[in-house]
Sequence to fold (333 residues):
Amino acid sequence: MMLKQSVSPQIQSFIREPLLCDRAEKLLLLRHDRKNRKDNRFLSLVPGKTNYTLVFEDDSLPDDHGAHNVIKVNSIEEIILYVGLLGASCEMYLSPEYLSSPGEWLGKLENIQSKLAFEALDGADSETIAALLRKIPLDIDGLLKSPLAVRDEDVVPGVVNPDVIHKKNPANALLSEPYFAGRLVYYNMLMHTEELRFDHESDHVQGMLLLEAMRQAGIATTHLSSGLPATGGMTLMSYCTSFYNYIEHKAPVIIRSYTSYTVPQEVGEKDSFAICQVYQWGKLCAEATLNAVVFMNKERYTRHRRRTENLSARNRRLFTSKVQAMSKPVSNE
Fold:
């Protein structure tokens, strides 16, 4: 009880009961108290305060832990990226044994700040982010508290604003209104669009429909999560997709997406990528990485289109000239 009385009320609230009086816990409590932190919700000795719990590969959770979703990490760099992705919805668990071991992990973890995490995240490439996302379980508990449909009997919310998917007709939208969690954006996938028609019924969701839904999610997330103005545009440069499981028509489908785009300091075009993952019943069914060039306004996008049209016209002229030259009869003289 003496330990509990020797620290501030804020630090007492940081650790849930029961309060274990061992060397490692004293170290953690006293260091936080000495720094006079109001409440550190990232470092934890009792997992389960947030939706996601990070733990080192060679560390272990207590047998009776209350963690909702566990993510195994292997470096400080990886932890920093997860802080950028998940924000306040993640915590870092350190066992008393791990705290007592050499490595100065506590000091390194205490130095992680949101600004540092966002900078590291913005500098990461698409392969790195995709690998991180695959390790993040779908947060069922958080989604059940959101407006999105999760269970078979849930009602899908309204359609996303067609402006953020570059559509004029809401009937062509394949996304619901969004739900935000850290830098990740979630949508329910809709099952019909006037733009795509199939000549036969299928017992699962068609691949073309999934491709269009993920394309829309990449565009919408760039607008909604990163502040791209409604007047901005983008050109898709590449689209890499993997399919893992069939998707059924009559159960909710959730799309989780991330975009690397941040508004540039000067108005102009910027390379960007989006990563989209499709889930049904909590299982990853498909994912895609979309690379694009993003334009802050319509004028720049229009100039880009003119440049590509001129390039296409030039390619056509060169091709036509080559075909005509090859079509000329060969003289036998």
Notes: The longest strand covers residues 283-295.
